[in-house]
C-alpha cells in the first residue's frame, strides 16, 4: 500500500460516457488484481474534502489506467485535469475478484456504469466466457480498441435499443440462462445497485454462484472509519478491506 | 539543537504531542502500512463498549463543505475482543495506548474501567466518550444529563488510578462549566472536542444523506469551534487538554498548541492523508527549529492577547 503524488499522462474522453485517466507508478502498479481500487485525492486544497474511490481499469508495467464517468462534483473536477497535473493516489486497496474457478465453470461478467472498468480488467487478465454490458444508448459503447484484449463473447444491452439487445442487462442474462446450466455458471458483477440486485436475485433463485463488487461511499479506504459497511451473514463487513468484492453466499440480503 | 517535545499527564510521559482521535485510526494496524506507530506520542483507540455493538444503518458518512458527517453509531466488537485481540497488538508497540470507553449506564463505564485497569501493562490511560452525538438510545440522551456525566466520572475514578481523560462535546452544553465539574470529579485531563451534531439533505430524493438523519460533523469546518473551547478551558483551569477538531496540518496543530493544548489528536485528517500524523509532527519540529524553541513548553499556551482581556 502506498500513497503518492502522480502526474497525469493523459485524461481524455473515450466516448459519450467515460473518461480515461492514465499515469505511471511503480508502487501503485505492483501486485494489483482486478477488483482492487485506488483512493484519489484531487488536490491538496482539501476541496473536495474526501478522496474518491476508483477501480483499476488496466495495469501494464507501471502504466495505470482508470476509466470513469462524471457523477458529481469530484468526477467533474477530475475530468478538467490536464496532462502534467498532480493527483494523489492511495492503493492498491480492497479484496479483488476471484480468478481461479473449478474446472467446467463458465465465467459470466455482468457490468454497468462504473462497474465496467474492473470487469474489463478482469476479462483482459483471465479467460472469460461472456461479458455482458448494460448501457443507456449506443454512444456509451466502449470503442473497439478498449476491448481488443478481451477474449470473451461481449454482449451489449441498451435501454433505448440503439445497440445490442433492448432493455436492461438482465435481458441478456435471461437469454443466457436459457442456454446454460446454472450449476456451470459463475457470475461476477459490478455496476449500479439496482442492476446488481437484479443479478443477485436471479442468481440466488437458481443457485448460481458468484460475486458482486459493492460500491459504498468511502472515507478512509483502509477499514478505519467503518463508514462503508456491507451487510453479510456474519454482520457488517467493511467494503474497502473485506470487499469491495463479496461472494453471493456471504451476503445475507442485497446491499 | 536538542528539541524536547515531551509532555506529561499525571505520571504518564508522551514522547511528542501528536496522537490520533478515537474512531479515526482503526482498532489495530489499519495505518501500519503508512507510518511507524512508534513515532506517535500516543494512540487513542476507537470507543469500546461492554458488549459488541452493531452500529447504525447505512449510509453512515457524507462529505460536507470542509469536513464530513458520520453516524457510525459506535460499532465495535466489545470489551472481550479488545482484551483478546487489540491489547496484544498494542503490547508490541512502544507507544502509550489510550483506551476510549462508552456505556449506556454508569455501571457499564465502571465495569469497563475495572477491566482495563487490570491491563495497565498496555493500557496507559482511559478516555471517556461522554459525548457521542449519534447514538440515539441510551448514550446520547443519557449523557445529556449533566449529573450523570459527573456520576460516570466519579464511578470510573473509583475503579482506577490510570489517568482518566474526559472527552467533551459542545453538544453537552456549557463546555467550560462542565469541564470544571469533571475536573472536580477527578478527571486528570480533558479531550476537546468531539464532533458537533449536524445533517445534510439530498435535494433530488428529499432524503437525509445519513440513514441516522443526523451525525457528527468533523474536519476543518469545526476547527474554529474546537480552538475556542481549548483556549477557554485552558484559560479557566490548570488541566492537560487533548485537542481535536479539524487538525489537518502542522499549522492547525500549532494553533492548538499556542492556544494551550497539551496533545493534538489527528482525526478525520487520517482519512484524507494516511500520513497526516507524521507530516504534522515533522511540521511542528520544523516550526520549533525555526523559532529556536528548545522545549515544547515554551510554545504551549504562548498566545499573545493584547486587547479585550480582563
Ligand atoms: C470500490 C469502488 C470503485 C469504483 N470504481 C469506479 C470506477 O472505476 N469508475 C468510476 O467512474 N467510478 C467508480 N466508483 C464510483 C466513484 O467513486 C464515484 O462516482 C465518485 O466517488 C463520485 O464522486 P463525485 O464527487 O463526482 O460525486 P458525488 O457528488 O460524491 O456524488 C454524485 C453521485 O455519485 C454517486 N456516488 C457517490 N459515491 C459513489 C460511489 N462510491 N459509488 C457509486 N456512486 C457513487 C452519488 O450517489 C451521486 O448520485 C467506484 C466506487 C467504489 C466504492
Ligand atoms: C468516522 C468517525 C468516527 C469517530 N468515532 C469516534 C469514537 O468512536 N469515539 C470518540 O470518542 N470519538 C469519535 N470520533 C470523533 C473524533 O475522535 C474527533 O474527536 C472528532 O472527529 C473531531 O476531530 P477531527 O475534526 O480532527 O476529526 C469519530 C469521528 C469520526 C469522523
Ligand atoms: S472507507 Fe473507511 S472503513 Fe471503509
Task: Note down, in words, how this protein is organized.
- The complex is a heterodimer of chains A (255) and B (310).
- With 255 residues, chain A is α/β, with parallel strands linked by helices.
- Chain A is built from 4 helices and 16 strands.
- In chain A, α4 links the parallel β12 and β13.
- In chain A, 47% of the residues are buried.
- The model of chain A has no long low-confidence stretch (mean pLDDT 94).
- Chain B is an alpha/beta fold and 310 residues long.
- Helices cover 32% and strands 19% of the residues of chain B.
- Chain B is built from 9 helices and 16 strands.
- Chain B has an 8-stranded parallel β-sheet with strand order 3-16-15-10-9-8-7-4. Chain B has a 4-stranded antiparallel β-sheet with strand order 5-6-14-11, with no helix packed on it. A two-stranded antiparallel sheet of chain B has the order 1-2.
- The termini of chain B are far apart.
- The chains are: A alpha/beta (255), B alpha/beta (310).
- Chain A binds chain B through residues 1, 3, 41, 46-51, 90, 216-229, 235-236, 255, and chain B through 23-26, 30-31, 33-34, 54-55, 58-68, 70, 72, 75, 219-220, 248, 268, 270-275.
- The structure holds flavin-adenine dinucleotide, flavin mononucleotide and FE2/S2 (inorganic) cluster.
- FE2/S2 (inorganic) cluster binds at residues 218-221, 223-228, 238, 240 of chain A.
- The site of FE2/S2 (inorganic) cluster has 12 residues of chain A, from loops.
Our count of helices of chain A gives 4
Write down the CATH class of chain B.
Answer: Alpha Beta
What is the CATH topology assignment of the largest domain in chain A?
Rossmann fold
The assigned structural class of chain B equals alpha/beta
CATH architecture of chain B: Alpha-Beta Barrel
Low-confidence stretches of chain B: 133-140
CATH topology of chain B: TIM Barrel
Kindly report the name of the CATH homologous superfamily of the largest domain in chain A: Nucleotide-binding domain of ferredoxin-NADP reductase (FNR) module
Helix percent of chain A reads: 10-25%
Main-sheet strand order of chain B equals 3-16-15-10-9-8-7-4
What is the count of structural domains of chain A? 2
Amino acid at each position: 500500500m502506498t500513497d503518492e503524488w502522480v502526474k497525469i499522462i493523459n485524461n481524455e474522453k473515450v466516448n459519450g460516457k467515460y473518461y480515461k485517466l492514465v499515469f505511471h507508478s511503480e508502487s501503485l502498479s505492483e501486485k494489483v488484481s482486478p477488483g482492487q481500487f485506488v483512493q484519489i485525492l484531487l488536490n491538496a486544497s482539501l476541496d473536495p474534502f474526501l478522496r474518491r474511490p476508483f477501480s483499476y481499469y488496466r495495469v501494464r508495467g507501471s502504466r495505470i489506467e482508470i476509466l470513469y464517468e462524471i457523477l458529481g462534483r469530484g468526477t467533474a473536477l477530475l475530468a478538467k485535469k490536464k496532462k502534467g497535473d498532480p493527483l494523489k493516489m492511495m492503493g492498491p486497496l480492497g479484496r479483488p475478484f476471484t480468478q481461479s474457478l473449478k474446472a467446467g465453470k463458465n465465467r459470466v461478467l455482468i457490468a454497468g456504469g462504473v462497474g465496467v472498468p474492473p470487469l474489463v480488467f478482469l476479462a483482459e487478465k483471465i479467460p472469460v466466457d461472456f461479458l455482458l454490458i448494460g448501457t443507456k444508448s449506443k454512444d456509451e459503447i466502449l470503442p473497439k480498441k478498449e476491448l481488443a484484449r478481451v477474449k470473451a463473447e461481449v454482449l451489449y444491452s441498451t435501454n433505448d435499443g440503439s445497440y445490442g439487445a433492448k432493455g436492461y442487462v438482465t435481458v441478456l442474462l435471461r437469454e443466457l440462462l436459457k442456454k446454460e446450466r446454472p450449476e456451470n455458471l459463475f457470475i461476477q458483477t459490478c455496476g449500479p445497485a439496482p442492476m446488481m440486485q437484479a443479478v443477485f436475485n436471479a442468481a440466488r433463485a437458481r443457485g448460481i454462484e458468484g460475486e458482486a463488487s459493492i460500491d459504498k461511499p468511502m472515507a478512509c479506504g483502509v477499514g478505519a472509519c467503518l463508514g462503508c459497511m456491507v451487510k453479510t451473514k456474519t454482520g457488517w463487513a467493511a467494503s474497502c478491506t473485506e470487499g469491495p468484492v463479496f461472494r453471493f453466499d456471504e451476503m445475507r440480503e442485497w446491499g | 539543537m536538542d528539541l524536547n517535545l515531551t509532555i506529561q499527564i499525571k505520571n504518564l510521559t508522551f514522547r511528542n504531542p501528536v496522537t490520533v482521535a478515537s474512531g479515526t485510526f482503526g482498532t489495530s494496524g489499519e495505518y501500519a502500512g503508512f507510518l511507524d506507530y512508534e513515532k506517535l506520542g500516543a494512540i487513542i483507540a476507537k470507543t469500546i463498549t461492554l458488549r459488541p455493538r452493531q452500529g447504525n444503518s447505512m449510509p453512515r458518512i457524507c462529505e460536507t463543505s470542509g469536513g464530513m458527517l458520520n453516524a457510525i453509531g459506535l460499532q465495535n466488537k466489545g470489551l472481550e475482543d479488545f482484551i483478546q485481540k487489540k491489547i496484544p497488538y498494542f503490547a508490541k508497540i512502544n507507544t502509550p495506548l489510550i483506551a476510549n470507553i462508552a456505556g449506556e449506564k454508569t455501571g457499564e463505564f465502571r465495569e469497563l474501567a475495572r477491566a482495563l485497569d487490570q491491563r495497565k501493562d498496555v493500557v496507559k490511560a482511559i478516555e471517556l466518550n461522554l459525548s457521542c452525538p449519534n447514538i440515539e438510545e441510551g448514550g446520547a440522551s443519557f449523557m445529556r444529563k449533566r449529573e450523570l456525566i459527573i456520576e460516570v466520572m466519579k464511578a470510573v475514578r473509583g475503579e482506577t488510578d490510570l489517568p482518566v481523560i474526559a472527552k467533551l462535546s459542545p453538544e453537552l452544553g456549557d463546555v467550560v462549566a462542565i469541564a470544571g465539574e469533571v475536573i472536580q470529579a477527578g478527571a486528570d485531563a480533558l479531550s476537546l472536542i468531539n464532533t458537533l451534531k449536524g445533517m445534510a439533505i439530498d435535494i433530488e430524493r428529499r432524503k437525509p444523506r445519513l440513514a441516522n438523519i443526523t451525525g457528527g460533523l468533523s474536519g476543518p469546518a469545526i476547527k474554529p469551534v474546537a480552538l475556542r473551547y481549548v483556549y477557554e478551558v485552558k484559560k479557566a483551569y490548570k488541566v492537560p487538554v487533548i485537542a481535536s477538531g479539524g487538525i489537518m496540518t502542522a499549522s492547525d496543530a500549532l494553533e492548538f498548541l499556542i492556544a494551550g493544548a497539551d496533545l493534538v489528536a489527528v482525526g478525520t485528517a487520517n482519512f484524507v492523508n494516511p500520513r497526516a500524523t507524521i507530516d504534522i509532527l515533522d511540521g511542528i519540529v520544523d516550526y520549533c527549529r525555526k523559532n529556536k524553541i528548545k522545549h515544547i513548553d515554551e510554545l504551549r499556551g504562548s498566545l499573545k492577547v493584547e486587547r479585550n482581556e480582563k
